[in-house]
Design brief:
Two copies of one chain form a homodimer. Chain A has 20 helices and three strands. Chain A has 496 residues and is mainly alpha-helical. Chain A has two domains: 95 residues; 341 residues, Neurolysin, domain 3 (Orthogonal Bundle), CATH 1.10.1370. Chains A and B meet through helix 1 and helix 2 of A and helix 1 and helix 2 of B.
Chain lengths: 496, 496
């Protein structure tokens, strides 16, 4: 029998950490969906205490020694990968002094609050000071983590969301896409015919909810292990055995909620497909944010905005609103509505073609901010310049420009690129799945997602964090991330 | 400036413990109301880990020394009481070895599972073995805590639910009531006229829910600090700033859910009225289970089954079901329905007059079990004998007899008496409130609970755990618990 005393002790510790993280996840979900406003202060205390306990456990005096000792023990590949992920978590937690973590946390709270006011008043100057402080502390964190992880400062921030992510790699991918998009967009707009008349509302919330639940089941969501609720900002929360996805309803527009539900269902199916044997260990987690986003976008953009899916869905949708057989509810109309390209100022309202431009802009700016090459005061001008270059638009004010997203004001630098990396990864995975499983597209046209889900379970979900993102993608599709597949997808869908 | 270093350290520790307890409370609420079945195993792990962390923090190596050191510091009365409650919590947590806690926890799980089967099959013999093991371990715990708290073994169990509760005191009260009830019951039954015809259903769930919310607001529930949901077993959970009460709906009977909602609202108003300044300290908690039950029963039984309340409520209720002006919905009919006395086998279905008999029976038996004077195998015979003596009924089988309640099978010995202590305390507090606030009853007849709530806030809720239960009652009503008030209430209501 091999001795794995140190490793085994770490598994016990990380299982406990996982239970605390899951409790935190449920408390966050409740806060966004169920909690009355008056519960906010107590909830903040609960969350802060659980996070502090988590941090104390993760950075306890024995952990470093156990991690080193376990390196010398006989581990199988999953255990070895688990140890690697344990160390990564420990490095992120232990590298930064508690004082700095607290300072940044307080600066983010202040900045976020001021941002709400600044956005409402479309006045960037209001929040420039607080954001400067967030940036200053974030750069300090980046410098410290850069030492601990032996990577560049921006890459150290990236690593929090996208383990192993490197700006040098992302630069090549996003520059390529950034060079392609403006010309492609002009071509799409030149050829685009006027918008067809789609279904007209109102679309009752009850009908929308029933439709959402029906479609979640179609995609493979297990209601024994999750539920659908309402929150202001849709998300997928909970735990792999108890997935809580949310949406919001607009009675004038059912498609936004439906596509949102399909998107969050993609996230949920990923979590649900993580290997149960590694449920409470770091290696059993989802790989990173770009792969996570790839799973939601694979469902929403690749599978469900396709002609195949909409040919199945159109009569189901019409039935849900008692509109069976009425004009404007047919599959071709719904498809035309869904592939409409319309450049705008707001990222979260963007279509599939223009969305990457919003991300590229933010990625370029945040890299420059972290490098010290861009000052906070110069953000509005830089933003508007990039918008003009990438989308040919100039925001009329900062509310519709650099004040629209919460991310930076809440200290999330290094997150933005994962949206578009996810979109490209989704295209590449879907293409590989459709190539490997010939009946996949015809099954989707019949509302049968089992062939697709089965391929994803084997090639993505079940792999959890065994491999790095690039390795996983190469193993699943035969090559690392390749913009050609995403560009081909866009051409096929938007320039047929 | 006084030095309170030890005491101050303890406040920091107990605030953290409170945050963990609150997180546990929310996770329990979610489990009962929202969680899909497939989340049970993960939830059990989350709860177990948070409970273990709580136990480790509470019994940490410094705590005993800090408690002793704080005794010598200059404390005001609230701080002094807080220190007393800290020590009580610490004693309960540290007295019993972890091994025994675990054994008992496992024995309870096994016994509870077997009990579900035994109850379904009305076969006590099935669960006699597992219950014997639970009892054996509970007696071991009682013996250990008896030493630690310097009280009798049964009193040590009582103390878990009713701090400072003593069987010698409860004996006198419940024996007095037990001697009174059989004769009183016969008298009530002799005089009782046939039941009037009440409202007939079905009573749609939506209407019941709207009515429940309306009546919660009438009693003073703040929806900024709580919500109403559905669970199989109604309860009041959450935290003082975020109270989660639950009910269940039967479309054939709206009164059961309505009275349940009023009952749980009483619990919630107690929690909400606890002093905010002591929110996360032991002294800031509700005093004990009998006082908690007194607050629910004061609302349900004293205030809301009164002629005054029902004269206000009858038209509101009729309106809720679209039955305004229809026969059988008037206040007198609703009152007659609500004061119907009908002895039965099942405690939770019992009316106000016969309920104490169910409790007295259980109290006598569980004392004998803990003392070793009654063996598990002899429970069914002893149960049936007491039922005959107290209510003149003999259960046709053990499902309707000694298998009906989960408490003992889940290890809860010492809990039962708090139900009837609560009922008597409710009568005494309501009597004192009505004496002190002349307009209290007429206000209730107008749906105005502010005079009552204001008296309760000052005399009960705001006192939290500053005093012992008896002291609090004496301060609020001028005397300790006195069966005469409860008996007078029963006579006034049931033998008018």
């Amino acid at each position: 029998m091999q001795c794995r005393a140190a490793y085994d002790s770490l598994e016990v510790l990380f299982a406990r950490l996982s239970h605390v993280e899951q409790a935190l996840g449920m408390l966050h979900w409740d806060m966004a969906t169920m909690m009355p406003a008056g519960g906010a202060a107590s909830r903040a205390e609960q969350l802060a205490t659980l996070k502090a306990l988590h941090h104390e456990m993760l950075t306890g005096p024995d952990v470093h020694g156990l991690l080193d000792a376990a390196e010398g023990e006989a581990l199988d590949p999953w255990q070895r990968a688990n140890l690697r992920e344990m160390r990564r978590q420990w490095l992120h937690a232990s590298a930064v002094p508690a004082r700095l973590v607290e300072q940044l946390s307080r600066a983010c709270s202040a900045s976020e609050m001021t941002w709400r006011k600044a956005r409402a008043e479309a006045d960037f100057a209001l929040v420039a000071g607080p954001l400067t402080e967030v940036l200053r502390l974030t750069r300090e964190v980046a410098a410290i983590k850069s030492q601990a992880l032996a990577v560049a400062p921006y890459d150290a921030l990236l690593d929090q969301y996208e383990p192993g992510g490197r700006a040098a790699v992302i630069d090549a991918v996003l520059d390529d896409l950034g060079a392609f998009l403006p010309g492609f967009l002009r071509e799409v707009q030149d050829r685009q015919v006027p918008a067809p008349e789609g279904p007209s509302g109102p679309f009752p919330t009850d009908c929308q909810k029933a439709l959402g639940l029906r479609m979640m089941a179609t995609l493979g969501f297990e209601f024994e292990h999750g539920r659908l609720d309402v929150s202001q900002h849709p998300f997928c929360g909970g735990t792999p055995d108890d997935l809580r996805i949310t949406t919001r309803y607009d009675e004038r527009d059912f498609m936004a909620s439906l596509m949102g539900v399909l998107h969050e269902t993609g996230h949920a199916l990923y979590e649900r497909g993580l290997p149960a044997a590694w449920r409470h260990q770091p290696v059993g987690r989802a790989r990173g944010m770009s792969l996570h986003e790839s799973q939601s976008l694979l469902m929403e953009m690749q599978a469900c905005r396709s002609r195949e899916f909409l040919s199945f869905a159109a009569p189901v949708i019409a039935e849900a609103f008692g509109a069976t057989g009425q004009p404007h509810w047919d599959a071709e109309t719904l498809y035309a509505v869904n592939v409409r390209v319309d450049p705008g100022f707001i990222r979260i309202d963007a279509d599939e073609v223009t969305y990457p431009a919003h991300v590229i802009l933010r990625y370029r700016l945040e890299k420059a901010l972290i490098a010290g090459d861009l000052q906070v005061a110069d953000i509005p001008a830089a933003w508007n310049e990039q918008m003009g270059e990438l989308l040919g638009l100039v925001p009329p004010n900062d509310r519709q420009g650099c004040l629209q997203d919460i991310h930076w004001f809440d200290g999330a630098f290094g997150y933005f690129p994962t949206y578009t990396l996810g979109a490209m990864t989704a295209a590449q995975l879907f293409d590989a799945a459709a190539g490997a499983v010939p009946e996949l597209r015809t099954a989707i046209a019949e509302g049968d997602f089992r062939p697709l889900l089965s391929w994803l379970r084997a090639n993505v979900h079940g792999q959890a964090s065994l491999l790095g993102t690039d390795e996983l993608l190469t193993q699943a599709t035969g090559r690392p991330l390749d913009t050609a597949v995403f560009k081909a997808h866009l051409r096929q869908r938007y320039l047929p």
